[in-house]
Write a structure and sequence with these properties.
82% helix, 0% strand, rod-shaped
Length: 38
Amino acid sequence: MKSAIVINIFIGVMKIAQSVASEQGYREYMSKSGNIWF
């Protein structure tokens, strides 16, 4: 049971890291394309 908890925590951390990375990439893309939305 402990290993399942560790795996769930790891998956959660990876999802958070992925969402943060995609948000940063999106903002960089928008700033390079001329700040249309900001």
